[in-house]
Amino acid sequence: MEVALVCFFDNCHIIPVFAFFNAGAAFFRAGGNSGFPVKASVTSRDAKKV
Predict the structure, then answer these.
(1) What share of the chain is helix, strand, coil (3-state, %, to 5)?
(2) What's the pTM value of the predicted model, to 2 decimals?
(3) Terminal CA-to-CA distance of the chain, rounded, Å?
């Protein structure tokens, strides 16, 4: 049960962060700079692997 609570609280914190990232990416795409969100996503994904 403790593992389920940890996963639940982790997801509760990650979902708003993901929403802000998507909103920021939409602004960059609307401005014509669609490469920046992709680079940021790849960088954050690679940072998690370490």
Answers:
(1) 90, 0, 10
(2) 0.47
(3) 28
The Cα–Cα gap between 14 and 17 comes to 5
Domain boundaries, the chain: 18-50
> Tokens in use for 4?
């389920």
Distance of CA 7 to the CA centre of its chain: 17
The amino acid occupying position 34 is: S
pLDDT per position as a tens digit, 19-42: 888 888 788 777 777 677 777 777
User: Distance between CA 40 and CA 22 in Å, rounded?
Assistant: 11
Tell me the three state secondary structure of residue 31: coil
